[in-house]
Amino acid sequence: MQQAKWTTPLLQWFSDHHRPMPWRDDPSPYKVWISEVMLQQTQVATVIPYFERFLTRFPTVQQLANAPAQAVLRYWEGLGYYSRARNLHTAAKQIAGPLQGHFPTTAADWKQLPGIGDYTGAAIASIANGQPEPAVDGNVLRVFSRLYGIRDDITQPATRDQFRDQLRPLIRPVDPSAFNQAIMELGALICRPRSPRCTDCPIQPFCKANRDDSTDCIPHKPRKTPVPHHHEVAVIIHNPEDEVLLYQREEAKLLGGLWAFPQRRRTGHQAYRQTAMQIIKGLLAAPDSIHNLQKETVIKHAFSHFSRTIHVFSCKAETVDLPPGTKMTTPCWIQPDKLKDMPLSKVDRTIANLIV
């Protein structure tokens, strides 16, 4: 099958200019799988130190499968999107158990594991297993739409399917791993969303968007709607032994499985101190026993779909009994020196650092 004319200069550029990454040195199925899951929604520079720490703690799929869920979450802490860690752990148990330690080899088989979709399955199968499957992520969509001057909405699944079908015959005559990684690398380093470095691009002579001077409007994306912003309150409650109250978030909800300080969203324009008192009254059998309620800090944090401002208070509680029916999953009094071993969100880790 004939190669596209732009393939050779692209692969040569990738050979000369690719970034060093620890999973590229040894593209074993285990390392490529871990790296691709970590790279979902996360930039390479952020992932590398987490990847190295994670592989040091869990060097094999068997050790990952045998690890406690809380340990996996603790070593994932800070990467966000914690369902990735839970899915990774579940998948490791499937590989170590029913699959008897054998990794999948095709994109279709990789997609049978939890947390693996079209892109991730194709990326792993091509990089680790040499399968000619195009891996279509945001970088690939941008490069390919500019290269051919395609103005379709790249957020639509039909557009992704179209690009995948068009790339599939182009990947067959070449090294699938280098092909997929080269397009992704080009999108990350050269064909950037804004201010693309067209003069440095190895496939500039073949690029329709460059010829038409339309790189600023390709690819097409619908305008983003503003994300909502929430004001929240968190409370550090100390008991007479100087332990602090934490609870474990429900598995199926945001940040599931992580531990957190008691917190809730402010209602309307309610005073933050009043919200803090409502939290305390909902938790302690004798809320009037608390004293020294004071504001400690304000933390700002953003998810992809909303942002938050968290007002942090602290207090002392003389009576520490939790009333029946407390609306918390696994509430516990924790010694501050134990917090370092517990998986916490970024916000809750920041709060914990106020204590230890």
Task: Describe the 3D structure.
Helix 1 crosses helix 12 (176-189) and helix 3 packs antiparallel against helix 9. The protein starts with 6 loop residues before the first helix and ends with a helix. The protein has helices at 7-17, 22-25, 29-38, 44-57, 61-66, 69-76, 83-96, 107-110, 118-129, 138-148, 157-171, 176-189, 208-211, 272-283, 346-352; strands at residues 229-238, 244-248, 259-260, 263-265, 290-302, 307-317, 332-334. A hairpin with a 4-residue loop joins strand 5 and strand 6 (307-317). With 356 residues, it is of the alpha+beta class. The chain has two domains: 7-211, Endonuclease III, domain 1 (Orthogonal Bundle), CATH 1.10.340; 229-352, Nucleoside Triphosphate Pyrophosphohydrolase (Alpha-Beta Complex). Helix content is 41%, strand content 13%. Strands 4-1-6-5 form a four-stranded mixed sheet, with helices on both faces. Strands 3-2-7 form a three-stranded antiparallel sheet, with no helix packed on it. The longest helix is centred in the middle third of the chain and has 15 residues, at 157-171.
